[in-house]
Records
---
Amino acid sequence: MNVATFALRVTHAIGIDAATANSATSQEYTLFLSWLNEGVVQFLRKTKLYKRTASMALTVDEGDYAIDSDILAFEDVTYTPESGQARSLTQIDSWQIRDMRLLAAVSTDPLYYSYEGQTIMLYPTPLSSSDTLHILYVPRPTALAATADNPSGGSFGGIPEEYHSVIEAYVKWKAGEHANDKASQNGQMFKAEYEAGVVEARVAEQRKAGMRMGSVNIGRGSNWRSLAGPGVDLGA
């Protein structure tokens, strides 16, 4: 779906005139567009569905590295030493790394990483400035603006068409709250639809990758957290 289609579907659902909502000068359209872009970002944060790989040059004995603000979330941090034998690093809490750094220095390649305040922390520190860190990450999308813009595009989020209805539900949720829409219980019906859609998207992508999944009972039990991918969510 492009922006124009999202606008028609969402504004009709909450009773706003589509012609008014599609006017770039209207307040309703400005709100709609902000909710749509917010929905794309939140969907990507929760599903980590679209990923890219970045490489970071390291410095000998330096354990802290700043992360670009355009990274929404990351996972699968891999360390490649000068020797060429790459390994995945284990994620631990930042306080654990700080505690280990108080001990005597260890002469080995990094084994652990943590994230704190837009910074990746490594322990032990790199042994060579020729070492490299590789990060599988979720990029922050370019904001949708033109009516032809589509979140399926890589720069706009890379979200497959089959999940656009989940983003639509997010926008309807926010619009329903704003309009005090009684038919949707002030947007709460759409909020439930969005949350269920996020879970279903996670499961569908894991099955697409060949993973077998047990039954999922939405909204019950304590195992729903296992559906979230590993890694770090950097927030919006």
---
Amino acid sequence: MGHKISRTVVGELLNAQKFSLQGNRKPLEGGQSPDRDAQFLHINDRVTKALAEKQPVISVDTKKQELVGDFKNNGREWRPQGSPEEVRVHDFIIPELGRAVPYGVYGHRRQRGLGERGDERRYG
């Protein structure tokens, strides 16, 4: 049943039909929101007024949760040639370690920031 064919030939046939290997793209939500500038102008106006009134102003930013442990990381670091860090094959959560929730807090008046790694077990 069917015909035997190599993946090289399949690739050549797809190429001839103008197909190519491609990564995903994220255009489904459309471009930039028309309200984006208005949002930031509103926030900036509130911050400027609060600082003028000697009120405290902070910004809080959270990042995507990360698994804690020896998992593959898309970042890079300098290591001796030929000795990459060994990591787990599968990215299954280690229940005892949980996930990290990186976040930062920035104080506008003193222009100082603090970066932390929260623990999902403490913060829900």
---
Amino acid sequence: MTSDDVYKIILYAAAKNKQNGYVSPEDFNTVLMPVAQKSYLDYLLGEYQKYQPMRPISVVEFGQNERIRTSLAPLIYGAILNPFPYNGISPFPSDFEYTDNMWGLYGFYNIRFVQQNRLDSYAHSTIDPVVSNPVYLIQHEGFHFFPEDIGAAKLSYVRTPPPIEWAYTLDVNNRAIYDSVNSKQPIWYEADILDIVSRALRIIGVNLQSQAITQYAEEIKNTGQ
């Protein structure tokens, strides 16, 4: 689904459900899409955190975790971190939202996340020393690794969703015409886009379920809008 498809659905839904319903390209680009995408990402991350591995949960909940991961898949990226050797801190990637996993640079042994109030017991453990079993904290500067001279680490993380923007040019009658070259397209799967559209419509006071939005999309396609 393109940004043009998304904008057309929102225009169509607004016109059918609100008196004088209209959403300008500027409102679509700068208000509706950023807020709706952020709302949906917060929902996905909140659900994902409920079903982390190694917790006493049922297989039904594991299925829920897999479904959420599928939705997040277009946003899961990898990065090599190179902490400063004098303090063990590596800044977050510029588009960082949430840590998916952290591994050592060679092989896939986990580098564990620890809370600040548990660092002392990990740092001074003789059974599980951080020299051979590294850990990290999250603080405002970024990731703080122990041992601080860890060298490098591999990060899997959820990034900020790229913007969805409907670019346009004006014709001789001053009407906005879709510009596919300069528009920014959604990276989500279609089912997720429908949820984002639903959240965007709620911002302007239109409450629709995904089934109704799908129907609107078909009506737009059938009428050649």
---
Amino acid sequence: MGVVRKGMLVAAMTLTTVAGAGCQNKLAEENKQLWQQNRELQAKYGEAANQPKADPSQATKVNALQGEIAARDAKIAELESQLRAPTTGQSPDPQLAGIETSFDQATGNMTVNIPGDVLFDAGRASLKESSKSTLNKIVSAIKKEYAGKHVFVDGHTDADPIARTKGMWQDNLDLSAERARAVAKYLTSQGLDHKNVDTRAFGSTQPKKSKEASRRVEIVVATR
């Protein structure tokens, strides 16, 4: 009888773990979708904010987009809170509240992935004004939760040769380096200690599954 009970207990624990993992996966997917939607809203907001302000309907549109972005930010923060809650038998990975991150258990590095089109125009290394609200959230979270930890800003590109601005850069490595420096400069201007912030350039040497995903800046926090 004791063996049967033990087997039932193990089965129950296994089902609980599987159900918990399934729930976490569902939350992660919903969170990913919200981040994509927020990126699209921020792009629309940036376009609307740069339009002439004389038209009252334009101001209404800008205010509406601000409201949508704020609502989705709140939902993302709620989902991140749920994702940080460990499933049975697990300890939570380090996170940044309200910000999509990944964590490497082996190295202790937490990575914030920011798509290149959120930060920069094609072939450029000057930060978009609309990107600064995203970077401000990251800075605020790092200062609050990981003050004094070392931060690496990694620049990445796709493998396509530079076309529109080829006269500005030697190659993709050069562009990725300048983009990393632009982000690092902004992070330190907002309060991160420059002694704890370093830049790294990878060009197209660490591609993702698509060209769009490959064009990115990663902010890596050494949590240990």
